[in-house]
């Protein structure tokens, strides 16, 4: 294997994002893992758009397993927040330097109803 092939595989692996959507009662939970950057943020946008069409009671985006959150990913979260009806709350699970720190530094933590755990996020959107 050439160095170029090895570098291409490393770049591809670094830009991996996995998204799983599930329901917890009437709440849609979008679990995200890996890297959310310019390359993978369209996946998150598509998942949020799909979740919104189902008219959930609320949406929780769980970033607990995200290892890198770029500004494009944060922009997708803000855009989703802005598109949701006022009656459909959104919460984001983020705890750690890769997710909560950038969201907090930019001032998005309060806007996105950031919580450190999934249980706390679910409580926040259902109470």
Automatic annotation (TrEMBL):
InterPro entries cross-referenced by the UniProt entry: Anti-sigma_ant (IPR003658), STAS_dom (IPR002645), STAS_dom_sf (IPR036513)
Single GO MF descriptor: anti-sigma factor antagonist activity
Record domain STAS: where: 27-125
NCBIfam families attached to this UniProt entry: ant_ant_sig (TIGR00377)
Family: Belongs to the anti-sigma-factor antagonist family.
Protein's recorded name: Anti-sigma factor antagonist
Organism: Mycolicibacterium fluoranthenivorans
């Amino acid at each position: 294997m050439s160095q170029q092939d090895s570098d291409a595989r490393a770049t591809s692996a670094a830009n991996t994002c996995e998204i799983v959507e599930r329901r917890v009662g009437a709440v849609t939970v979008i679990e995200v893992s890996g890297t959310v950057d310019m390359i993978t943020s369209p996946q998150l946008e598509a998942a949020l758009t799909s979740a919104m069409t189902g008219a959930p009671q609320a949406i929780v985006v769980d970033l607990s397993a995200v290892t890198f959150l770029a500004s494009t990913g944060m922009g997708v979260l803000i855009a989703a927040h802005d598109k949701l009806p006022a009656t459909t709350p959104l919460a984001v699970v983020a705890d750690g330097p890769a997710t909560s720190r950038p969201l907090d530094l930019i001032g998005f933590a309060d806007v996105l109803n950031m919580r450190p755990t999934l249980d706390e996020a679910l409580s926040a959107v259902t109470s």
